[in-house]
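Hi P.,

Sorry for the delay on this. The queue was packed all week, but I finally got your sequence through. Input first:
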Amino acid sequence: MMKLAMLAVLATAVTGKRLIETAPGKRVWMTEAEVDTLASRIGEKKAFIDVTDYQNVTWEKVKSKKASYPTPGVHKAYAMSVMDDLKGIETDIVNTIQYLGSLHTRYYTTQTGKQATDWLASQYLAAKKGRSDVTIQQFMHSWVQPSLIVSVDGLDKSEEVVIIGGHIDSINGGANGRAPGEDDDGSGSATVFTVFKHLMDNQFKPSRTVEFHAYAAEEVGLRGSQEIAQHYKSIGRNVVAMVQLDCTGYTADGPASISLIQDNTDPDLNHYLTETIAEYCATPSSISSCGYGCSDHASFTNAGYPAAFPFEAPFPQRNPFMHGTQDVLSKINTTHMVEFAKMTIGFVCDVACKEGSELCTA
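Then the structure:
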């Protein structure tokens, strides 16, 4: 197996190509420019995974040890107190998106991509208010842009981990194209951060460990999240739930919904999120499918962890401006993003807080 991995590295070094999987077992070698072209089609969220570094890895179909989740709403009083300032939640989401979108690009090989991660880390640092049980780590890769992992230690089930993720990179044709990515995935990264900030404002102290992630290099085949998920698998980290927020802002004509992607996700976790949305949100849920590796949840599914992907709309009604210069705040719906924040706050409080206690502050 080690020999195969070394051969893969040598092949990449010699050919400059990446091995791209567009469906189970369907693989093709592509140059990085070809990958950029595949990933950058405006209005598309192309489903593929870069498996160059994982040719000898068997994607898991048996999930890690199942955790029990309490009934949605069990910590509703505390969750609603976190949601009390909806205008503040909206403002924090918008401010975060505006900064991320102001960078020319957040492409994973660029200094502005690194700047995006550095800046977001600084926002988490300010929001954690000096708490020693909250750690901020930049997960380094072989490319310029790091991923970000922010962890709130659990009090009595610290070995069980709940992850809320999004991706920090953007794309429009490669390293040079203007790629504001304010929906894809500025909206998700901003929602994840805002949930963290408002939990910190309300003295959040969970029973289970909760991590907030921002992945590098999602757009070119889930490369950042794959490294993290496979690392967690290798060290035996017990991830009991992973929820990916990738595009939380666009609403097409007609009724808005939070659409739970059904492929490469965990059915039990999807069912739980359906009930969570009904409990906490004004917007209903719907179901949809996205194809193959359409976002970072697939990296955790492939590592054997239960993962879910609530998306901004049924997949055929996704944002037509993503991966282009018009993926900007004026094209998306801030009220819709607040509904995603409400869902995520409710989910985190119910799943991570201590069972039998109404509060999540001790």
